[in-house]
Amino acid sequence: MAPDPVAAGTSAQGSIPRYFTWEEVAQRSGREKERWLVIDRKVYNISEFIRRHPGGSRVISHYAGQDATDPFVAFHINKGLVSKYMNSLLIGELAPEQPSFEPTKNKELTNEFRELRATVERMGLMKSNHLFFLLYLLHILLLDVAAWLILWVFGTSFVTFLLSAVLLSTVQAQAGWLQHDFGHLSVFGTSTWNHLLHHFVIGHLKGAPASWWNHMHFQHHAKPNCFRKDPDINMHPFFFALGKVLSVELGKQKKKYMPYNHQHKYFFLIGPPALLPLYFQWYIFYFVIQRKKWVDLAWMVTFYIRIFLSYVPLLGLKGFLGLFFIVRFLESNWFVWVTQMNHIPMHIDHDRNMDWVSTQLQATCNVHKSAFNDWFSGHLNFQIEHHLFPTMPRHNYHKVAPLVQSLCAKHGIEYQSKPLLSAFADIVYSLKESGQLWLDAYLHQ
């Protein structure tokens, strides 16, 4: 059978392949509305496709004008199926004399990481232990029931009220880590089951939309700590001056939205305690209504109906609202300290189009393994391994960690791992340092 001319990357005449250079690809980064990217030396025009991309328009756009081979492999669990839908986007391939990726990327490191990826797959580390996740879900459900039973059996004294709030906060935090697993497609071998359980956990157990999480989180993974590409650092510059590079840049521009030299102090006021109850709580509803995500809204409504009917008869409306606010307050502190300990102290900059390994390692660090740290952080203490292999089931992170450490050691890349409390403290220290760098640049440069 003759090869399909489009799939083969040929011209309209169907006989002469269309060849492109990296310079031509880089010019299609979206600045002039046209967007191309490269996967396995094939050039794709994603200008129109971005609006239909299941993972969202922004995450794929962040690689416009660049090689996207490694993130493509990292994010998709059924690459064969996805590749079939890509044929209509194929417009050609890199010219034979062109390297497989841009000169800004480490060729040897990239090739060795791809070999490591193949080794990891052969070892079966991308396969999930369903019993692990079933037991994890059951422990969340048991804690949820216990929080209600305490009030029902022992009454609504201050002690039982507080204990119930702590248990519910634990449920919310742990459900947050579990929905993260389903959202990354790391539990089941098919997207359908992962998506269904993702809706149940984040929607029914937490009252948040899966589409909002996907929209935000996949961008973070695609370009971690890259300004204007990672939404997790969108608090720069309006609330915080982040990273050494961006802080100095902000100071030189004489911009001062906040007294950044004091940000390590006001972080304790507008960071951990406020993010969920004062921002996420209302923004998620705005998100689903503005984008007409009615399925997500329906799942969210089931959460609020369930928790309302469970606790209002025991506590009354005011008591229920007080309990709900305390739960969100405690959960917010838990969530912010865990999610920021791996990234805020690390390198934050504009996108320099580095290779996949360098991009992830300069933006992430680990926290030492222990039974408590693994549980408390939902195994996000293995942030490096999670970022390199985002669809890997979390119970396998510790198995691949030695292989990643060896790769880093060979190429002189720093592999940071630290105690939990040190990781928390480094958030504050890094904010203090970047605030001082901003002030010095603001006053003297």
From TrEMBL:
SMART domains tied to this protein: Cyt-b5
Membrane topology (UniProt): Multi-pass membrane protein
Keyword Transmembrane: yes
This protein's pathway: Lipid metabolism; polyunsaturated fatty acid biosynthesis
UniProt entry keywords in alphabetical sequence: Acetylation, Electron transport, Endoplasmic reticulum, Fatty acid biosynthesis, Fatty acid metabolism, Heme, Iron, Lipid biosynthesis, Lipid metabolism, Membrane, Metal-binding, Mitochondrion, Oxidoreductase, Transmembrane, Transmembrane helix, Transport
Biological process annotations from GO: alpha-linolenic acid metabolic process; fatty acid derivative biosynthetic process; linoleic acid metabolic process; long-chain fatty acid biosynthetic process; unsaturated fatty acid biosynthetic process
Gene Ontology CC: endoplasmic reticulum membrane; mitochondrion
GO molecular function: acyl-CoA (8-3)-desaturase activity; heme binding; metal ion binding; omega-6 fatty acid desaturase activity
EC numbers: 1.14.19.44
CDD domains listed in its UniProt record: Delta6-FADS-like (cd03506)
Subcellular locations according to the entry: Endoplasmic reticulum membrane; Mitochondrion
Gene3D superfamilies named in the record: Cytochrome b5-like heme/steroid binding domain
This protein's record includes keyword Hydrolase: no
Domain Cytochrome b5 heme-binding: 17-95
One Pfam short name: FA_desaturase
Known catalytic reactions: (8Z,11Z,14Z)-eicosatrienoyl-CoA + 2 Fe(II)-[cytochrome b5] + O2 + 2 H(+) = (5Z,8Z,11Z,14Z)-eicosatetraenoyl-CoA + 2 Fe(III)-[cytochrome b5] + 2 H2O; (8Z,11Z,14Z,17Z)-eicosatetraenoyl-CoA + 2 Fe(II)-[cytochrome b5] + O2 + 2 H(+) = (5Z,8Z,11Z,14Z,17Z)-eicosapentaenoyl-CoA + 2 Fe(III)-[cytochrome b5] + 2 H2O; (11E)-octadecenoyl-CoA + 2 Fe(II)-[cytochrome b5] + O2 + 2 H(+) = (5Z,11E)-octadecadienoyl-CoA + 2 Fe(III)-[cytochrome b5] + 2 H2O
Annotated TM spans: 131-152, 266-289, 301-327
Primary localization: endoplasmic reticulum
Homology family: Belongs to the fatty acid desaturase type 1 family.
Protein name, entry field: Acyl-CoA (8-3)-desaturase
Naturally occurring in which organism (per UniProt): Ictidomys tridecemlineatus
Taxon lineage: Eukaryota, Metazoa, Chordata, Craniata, Vertebrata
Gene encoding the protein: FADS1
